[in-house]
Specification:
With about 200 residues, the protein is of the alpha/beta class. The chain contains seven helices and seven strands, in the order H-H-E-H-E-H-E-E-H-E-H-H-E-E. The chain has one domain: 3-Layer(aba) Sandwich (Rossmann fold). Strands 3-2-1-4-5-7-6 form a seven-stranded mixed beta sheet. Helix 3 packs parallel to helix 4. The chain is globular, with a radius of gyration of 16 Å.
Length: about 200
């Protein structure tokens, strides 16, 4: 599915970074190494690289990687981009100053495991930034499928699941909010999301 989506002309979710991600990088002046799981076509990775971060992104889609590298070349920046299962990537040997999970909806059997492993890769004092569809999003998706997101509740987030998965992090911001999305072709309309900023305890 993802290879097909990313192989089509244009950028599925646009080329501008996610607004919450962009604002959070600025708000906390985040520097150093950044991990971006499920990064797709690279809009957030390329933006972060233009801000001086050393970016490590991954996805399961080769088409996504190709588009991300094209976007990076156009912006005259470098990003590290791996394709494959997270646990098979060399990134596991790194430590990061931050990780951003922007609409990174993994299968239910992997979700908590991925979150916990990503948390382990963050240095003390480092950040997790997350924006993704909440369990309360499903009714809005039924009204307007163009807003996007998984159609299975078990792939969506709750504030309790985030607290659980990132228990080693001080909660700076954790909320469920309704927002207007305008991100490329596949995120358009009113959606309900979880927004989380956590700082790893020292």
């Amino acid at each position: 599915m993802w290879d097909d989506r990313y192989a089509s002309e244009g950028y599925a979710y646009g080329t501008d970074p996610n607004i919450f991600f962009k604002e959070t990088l600025k708000r906390f002046n985040i520097k150093g190494k950044l991990l971006l799981p499920a990064e797709g076509e690279g809009r957030n990775a390329v933006y972060a690289a233009t801000q001086g971060l050393e970016v490590f992104a991954f996805d399961i889609s080769n088409s996504g990687k190709e588009k991300a590298l094209q976007l990076a070349e156009k912006a005259n920046v470098n990003i590290n981009y791996g394709v494959g299962d997270f646990f098979d990537l060399t990134f596991l040997k790194e430590k990061f100053d931050a990780a951003a999970l922007i609409y990174a909806h993994f299968s239910p059997s992997l979700l908590s495991e991925y979150h916990k492993k990503i948390g382990e890769l963050i240095r003390p004092g480092g950040f997790i930034i997350l924006e993704g569809f909440s369990k309360g999003h499903l009714p809005l998706r039924k009204i307007n499928p163009n807003v996007g997101g998984p159609d299975k509740e078990e792939m969506l987030f709750s504030m309790d699941s985030i607290r659980n998965d990132f228990s080693a992090f001080e909660i700076i911001q954790l909320e469920e909010v309704e927002i207007e999305l305008a991100e490329g072709k596949y995120h358009n309309g009113v959606g309900k999301v979880i927004r989380f900023i956590g700082k790893k305890s020292i």
